[in-house]
Amino acid sequence: MLQNQNNKNAIILIGALFFIFGFVTWLNGPLITYVKLAFGLDTDSKAFMVTTAFYMAYFFLALPSSWILEKTGMKKGMGLGLLVMAVGTFIFGQFATHRNYSMCLLGLFVIGSGLSLLQTASNPYISIIGPIETAAKRISIVGLCNKAAGIISPIILSAFVLKGIGGLEQKVNSTPDPVAKETILNEFAKSIYVPYIIMAVILLVVAFLVMRSSLPEIKSSESNKQIETAEGAKQKNSLFNFPHLWLGALCIFVYVGVEVMAGDAIGTYGKGFNIPTDETKYFTSYTLAAMLLGYVIGLITIPKYMSQEAALKYSAVLGIVFTLGAFFTHGYASVAFVAALGLANALMWPAIFPLAIKGLGKFTEKGSAILIMGIAGGAIIPKIFASLKDEHDFQLVFCLLMIPCYLYILYYAIKGYKAGQ
Predict the structure, then answer these.
(1) What confidence score (pLDDT) does residue 229 get?
(2) Residues 390, 385: Cα–Cα separation, whole Å
(3) What is the 3-state composition of the chain as percent helix, strand, coil, each rounded to the nearest 5?
(4) Can you tell me the distance from the alpha carbon of 223 to that of 57, in angstroms, rounded to the nearest whole number?
(5) First to last CA, the chain
(6) Which CATH topology does 4-418 take?
(7) In angstroms, what CA-CA distances link 65 with 31, 290, 294?
(8) Rounded to the nearest 10 degrees, how much is the dihedral formed by the CA atoms of 392, 393, 394, 399?
(9) What is the DSSP string of 77-112?
(10) Number of Cβ atoms within 10 Å of the Cβ of 330
(11) Is residue 356 predicted with pLDDT exceeding 80?
(12) Structural domain boundaries of the chain?
């Protein structure tokens, strides 16, 4: 076990990385608004390719990330992930100015690929740097950094890129001359270039600092194996001997789906009530503020007042209650219930991840990668919502997608995490 001071330093550095995760990830909400106007997309489903491209990277890159980390170690792997993110950020900023949507989606996929490498390294790292039973508390600490960044990033993008977008939409729609309309959209598209180039430079600097940092290397397989031996677990020789891992991967899938629905899709949800774009562009920040509150509650209550399993169970029940609240209300009240889902979702990742990797021993890295693959839920579930809402009542579609997800999370919290143990 690492010394306490080393643990604190590691948590501070991982917290900084989680701030970066949050800042980049939660830009997707306002980006959906940006791309729909900048690229002249005629449906929300096309705009939601933003989340599809971003989150599908986790599915394809998680396992390769585990292989890379076995070769590089966690610290160098984190630095490499930041470099990849910098490349993706540059691609997006560069091709957004040319209104090349396909290349922008490629840039988002590359950003997601870098994040996949970072997440595959940092999540098991923070989970096992101390006792696995208190991992949710440590993840809550770094989660505060993540969600604080998530509150800030939509506000910054909205201030520098989406300022006055409501009036701009009206101007575009009322301009009869196609050439004049294209000129307006070209100028709007270019407004995102400087923010993304600045982000690329920052990512490069942070990558260098991580590479040169004193972040201690730990053998995640050895640390997690100590727990396995202490609990008298049977010797297992395959990932398929750990059903709680696979059930946990599905739990991550549905969890990230509902998290992205509450965070990135809330602006589109609000527009279903004809709320102006100048207001909906900030809605992601409200969800993240609710999540921030949830992390504070986790810091106070876990494990002193409730276990990780209990936190997950209560969170799932709260998610069901808030989803029903959103369905049975309208306008701003309904949007408020969707934002409140941030509170319900906050403690889910901190609880699911350590429960799912518990006792994996030498399979910890590969198991973590499988869990990271589950983040693809953020690509699929919101895309289903965006595709169905154009033909069906958007509140009904929202409810029918969210309730089954929360019911499965509740199952995992009660029984699924114990499977095979």
Answers:
(1) 42
(2) 9
(3) 80, 0, 20
(4) 28
(5) 24
(6) Growth Hormone; Chain: A; (1.20.1250)
(7) 26, 31, 30
(8) -100
(9) HHHHHHHHHHHHHHHHHHHHTTT-HHHHHHHHHHHH
(10) 12
(11) yes
(12) 4-418
Crossing angle of helices 74-96 and 49-72, rounded to 10°: 150
Higher-scoring residue by pLDDT: 313, 226:
313
Residues 146, 22: Cα–Cα separation, whole Å: 4
Report the distance separating Cα 246 and Cα 240, nearest Å: 8
Per residue, what are the HEC states of 246-289?
HHHHHHHHHHHHHHHHHHCCHHHHHHCCCCCHHHHCCHHHHHHH
Structure tokens at 85: 């993110």
Answer yes or no: is pLDDT of 238 > 90: no
Q: Which residue has the tokens 């998290």?
A: 259
Name the pTM for this structure. Answer: 0.86
Gap between the Cα atoms of 203 and 86, Å rounded: 5
C-alpha 201/C-alpha 222 separation (Å) is 36
- Residue 387 tokens, joined: 């595709």
Which residue, among 276, 28, 49, 283, has the nearest Cα to 165 in the 3D structure?
276
Whether omega for the bond prior to residue 30 falls within 30 degrees of 0, making it cis, is no
- Number of neighbours of residue 212 by Cβ within 10 angstroms: 10
The two three-digit tokens of residue 381, written as one number = 């579930």
Give the 3-state secondary structure of residue 409: helix
Question: What are the tokens at 56?
Answer: 């599908």
- Angstrom distance (rounded) from CA 325 to CA 402: 12
Collect all residues with Cβ–Cβ distance below 8 Å to 226 and sequence separation of at least 6.
none
